[in-house]
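Narrative of activities, Objective 1.

The group set out to show that a structural description can be obtained from nothing but a protein's sequence at a throughput compatible with the screening campaign. Below is one input-output pair from the validation batch, recorded exactly as produced.
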Amino acid sequence: MNLTPIRPHSAVCGGRDLVVPGDGVRLAATRWSGSGTPVVLIHGLASQRRFWNLVVPGLAGLPVVAFDARGHGESESPDDGYDTATVVRDLTTALDSLGLSRAVVVGHSWGASVACAFAAAHPERTLAVVAVDGGISTPSARWSREDARTALAPPQFALPPEDLPGLLAQGPLARWWSPDVEDAVLPIFGVDADGLARSRLRLDHHLAVVDALWEYDPVATLSAIMAPTWVVVAQPLQVLDDEAGRAWREEKQAGIASATASLADPRVVILAGAIHDVPLQWPALVAGLIRAAVDEVSGGAT
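Output recorded for this entry:
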């Protein structure tokens, strides 16, 4: 599926778009120059690197890089390689190509699991981890594999591209919707040969990532991380008091408890009132947490 962009999207804050190698795949990336401790930004499932657009201004002056994972955004979309180990090799190869030997690794949602898996596999390269609403639990704690595939499958739609922003603006980000948020979200989608907008991530690739999340072992992964690890938990103020809502709350609390017990050097930040996509909701706050992680490992304010 070779979708064309809905509109041109350029890097914010003087970033430079480039193509870097992964593990047998070409990855789209954006790099921002700076000095001091490097920061790597990893997006979540079915997202892409522009997701971090609103956070990047708060990291000005630091060397920062964000990638589109394989199958996502503008990166190549091979038929396989969506397991966590391969995605970690993609990240490792890309960082090698950029000459980045060590970094603070930041991930959101599925990207937090990738960040934690990278830190577990490469302790010598990981200065700190910031796991934003992910990385501390697994769908297998609540669902069978098939139930997880059903529950976490993306909505399937094809609609005129001019109708897409209005649809997206009615979702969980409605209260915080802005032209900047729109620019950060629209690159998730592209226009197909029939002129309709669809997700750039193929359904079979999406489900392959869901399988990887189902197989993810948070206890084993987190126990192998030696670096300071910031566990950032988004906690909406209103959750339905039904079976699904209670299961969600229990999973969150169990994940926090497990992470605190498993990590060598944890910091836990609970953001009451935050939605899952908190980097788009409160980007300055997320940037501040990343800077706190950077400051701690670099020995001073940046």
